[in-house]
TrEMBL record:
Organism this protein belongs to: Telluria aromaticivorans
All copies of domain DUF2007, residue ranges: 33-88
Gene3D superfamilies: UreE, C-terminal domain
Domain of life: Bacteria
Name recorded for this polypeptide: DUF2007 domain-containing protein
Length: 110
């Protein structure tokens, strides 16, 4: 993302913070590590390189989650807008599966 576009995006999204010395930005925070892992999986499946920060620490002791700010999802600056759109879709339920979805009978080769 070019500097003017990045600055405009950051101005519109004040929650995003840059990791000092890196080209990574915090795009989302979750208090439950599994939710962060699912969100990261959606980002990676969409072609966005996303990294979890502090996930193992939160799994060790969930009482630390509020004090540390939760599990952070980091993405490079050129993927910020795309990542925000994917996470908005996740929050809307765009990626949810229907409970009545039929299970296909497919042979499993072992």
């Amino acid at each position: 993302m070019e500097a003017p576009a990045l600055n405009a995006w950051l101005a519109a999204n004040p929650d995003a913070e840059q990791i000092p010395g890196r080209d990574l930005f915090v795009i989302a925070k979750y208090l439950i590590p599994m939710e962060a892992t699912l969100a990261q999986g959606c980002l990676v499946a969409s072609g966005i390189p996303a990294v979890l920060a502090d996930a193992h620490l939160m799994q060790t002791d969930l009482l630390l989650a509020p004090a540390l700010g939760g599990v952070r999802i980091l993405v490079p600056s050129e993927y910020l807008q795309q990542a925000a759109e994917v996470l908005e879709g996740l929050a809307r339920g765009d990626y949810a599966l229907d409970e009545d979805m039929p299970i296909q009978d497919s042979p499993v080769d072992c």
